[in-house]
Amino acid sequence: MCRGHLVGNGSSTMVLTSALRDIGGWDPDPRLDGNEDYKAFFTLAERGEFVVVRSHLLGYRQTQDNKSSKSRKMLASYDQVVAQFRSRHPEHEQAFTTGRQELIAYLFDRAVLSRHFSAVAYLFAEAFDQDPARAYALLARTPLIIGRLVVPLPIRALWRKQNANRPRRATRFNSSDIAPEMQAPTG
After folding, report:
1. 130 and 101 in contact (C-beta within 8 Å)?
2. Residue ranges per domain, the chain?
């Protein structure tokens, strides 16, 4: 949860009513608009564990009018939530920083796809302020994102199907690169 909203959205969860009541329910603070569920789930995570069902049970339609399409508002409300938890969990500072970078990347991709160029510029500036190298990495993948606008979905699906069995370039990954609190339990 320190790296971002593990749950994704409030419509995809089942929570005991008593657990939600114990934390005071959703915070009505208008500064959290778009991330009030993140705050609630983070608070629940401090008190217990989540179980993830790895099945497609919910569709989430994204439009230009979704709250999550409002980049500035989403990032500002995310920052409000994280500020509350950062002071309680200073041991996870790096995870909070990484979570913000990942949210910026997600919102950047959505802004490019939606042709919200003022949001693209804003998010690039935010990324640059946090880490210039990551900001340039966002720009470097912009042609791939734009390709999703230009190349019709059936052609992309056909290309994926034809290339599904091709060997992929190996990614160097070492489980010791993951912070212990982020590793999956063993046993």
Report:
1. yes
2. 10-164
